[in-house]
Design goal:
The protein is an alpha/beta fold. Helix content is about 50%, strand content about 15%. It is built from 18 helices and 14 strands. Strands 2-1-3-4-5 form a 5-stranded parallel sheet. A 5-stranded parallel sheet has the order 7-8-11-6-12. A two-stranded antiparallel ribbon has the order 9-10. Strand 4, helix 3 and strand 5 form a beta-alpha-beta unit. Helix 9 crosses helix 11 and helix 12 crosses helix 14. It is globular, with a radius of gyration of 25 Å. The relative contact order is 0.08.
Length: about 450
């Protein structure tokens, strides 16, 4: 199934029906509700027909990825507008004027989708090469053992739970499992459960039917359906709202699910991979995570050690990313000074590989004469003034503890309200309560 996102002020049922007949699935978004727009799309049809004010269009386009192809649907008279011409010139991959030549428009959309498919294939090959390169610099015994586990588990259909701190590369491992499975030709669909609010989880995972709720002007295919025949990666599964976990459990047990507003159960053949950086055992004890769901997800557990516990990988990884970004930014050859290498080996790497990547990328741009120094990595402050760093850490902890205690008292221990006020997930809130040994007051 091919996907197109359409955004405008009027839903064109005839156009969307013609696209569906060509097996092109349409997600329509009303321009009056920009917050509902899912900018993670590959092809965007921007319907400007009959619009006197098209200033909103630029904002919508800028929300999308730079690689998104934009086709603008516009009236002939609107082409006389200097603003419309500028909009097309800056952002459009192509445009089509009304009244439509439907065959020509369908060919145009088909050409765009073909180009997108080629791009995605190239990106997948590039990611595969990148994964292989990263694997080649994994020198530690822990990562070599993990690699063997991945090779053994990948060809099976058993669910896998990947544990590890943030930034250790859990999604990279999930992709390696998918690539090594019999489902590698199918889709790899990733969902960050921590970014989904309780009200949209069911629609995002299971999809919804047209008219099932206010604003549902068209049907929406959920992540599970999109992953049919492939792999669904549930990142930060520990942050999935407890009231939504039962719906996921039913799918894992029976292989069926209900779309929002649907009249009959749907079926999908999906392999589930899940990842978490929190202690699910503790979450289960608190009633924040279902024990039966844990057993369904935990067919095999893979543990990703933090970077500070596999120091043999630090310098090879740093050199790999240094070469990668020097090539990307066309800066010429780069290398590390001995002091920089020593500093990297001493650093705690709280952000793990993600932190390493960020520091290397910045250092490649800032270094002089192709030699990365300690200061380029911004590691010198911690080495030269550890007392100050410890003092700042103490201050941060005190402020953090005070903010949590104040919010708990303000909302009388109602954790959902406390988490919303602090703009963190409930799982993060409970981790802070444990860290600072706070009495939660929750009944």
């Amino acid at each position: 199934m091919k996907y197109v996102s359409v955004i405008g002020h009027q839903y064109d049922e005839y156009l969307c029906e013609q696209l569906r007949r060509k097996e092109i699935y349409v997600d329509f978004y009303n321009a009056s509700n920009p917050k509902d727009f899912n900018s993670d799309c590959h092809l965007l049809l921007l319907d400007l027909r009959g619009e006197e004010n098209t200033c909103w269009a630029k904002k919508m386009i800028k929300q999308c990825h730079k690689a998104t192809l934009v086709i603008m649907l516009i009236d002939r008279l609107q082409l006389r507008s200097a603003y419309s011409q500028k909009l097309i010139g800056q952002f459009a991959w192509d445009y089509h004027t009304a009244p439509f030549d439907l065959d020509r428009l369908l060919r145009l959309i088909g050409h765009a989708l073909g180009l997108i498919r080629i791009r995605l294939n190239c990106e997948q090959e590039k990611r595969q090469n990148h994964c292989d390169e990263v694997k080649a610099v994994m020198n530690s015994k822990a990562m070599q053992a993990l690699s063997k586990q991945v090779i053994r588990a990948a060809p099976t259909n058993i669910p896998i739970l990947i544990r590890g701190e943030s930034g250790t590369g859990k999604e990279l491992i999930a992709k390696k499992i998918h690539q090594g499975s019999s489902r590698s030709s199918g889709a790899f669909i990733a969902v960050n459960c921590g970014s989904l609010s309780s009200g949209v989880v069911q629609s995002e995972l299971f999809g919804h039917e047209k008219g099932s709720f206010t604003g549902a002007v068209s049907s929406h295919k959920g992540k599970i359906s999109q992953a049919d025949g492939g792999t669904l990666f549930l990142d930060e599964i520990g942050d999935l709202p407890i009231e939504q976990q039962v719906n996921l459990l039913r799918f894992l047990q029976e292989g069926t699910f209900d779309t929002v507003g649907g009249s009959k159960p749907q079926v999908a053949d999906v392999r589930i991979l899940a990842a978490t950086h929190i202690d699910l055992d503790t979450a289960i004890e608190r009633g924040e995570f279902r024990l039966d769901l844990f057993y369904r997800l935990n067919g095999i557990t893979l543990e990703l050690p933090p970077l500070r516990e596999r120091k043999e990988d630090i310098i090879p990884l740093a050199e790999h990313f240094c070469e990668q970004y020097a090539d990307e930014f066309n800066t010429g050859l780069c290398s590390f000074s001995e002091h920089a290498k020593a500093a990297m080996l001493e650093h705690e790497w709280i952000g793990n590989v993600r932190e390493l990547i960020n520091r290397i990328r910045r250092a490649v741009i800032l270094c002089e004469n192709g030699i990365i120094q300690v200061a380029d990595l911004e590691l010198n402050a911690r080495r030269e003034d550890s007392k100050l760093a410890q003092g700042l850490k103490t201050i941060k902890n005190e402020v953090e503890k005070h903010a949590v205690m104040t919010a708990i008292q303000r909302y009388n221990g109602q954790m959902e309200s406390v988490a919303r006020d602090l703009k963190i997930s409930r799982a993060t809130l409970y981790r802070l309560i444990d860290k600072h040994e706070i009495c939660s007051l929750e009944s």
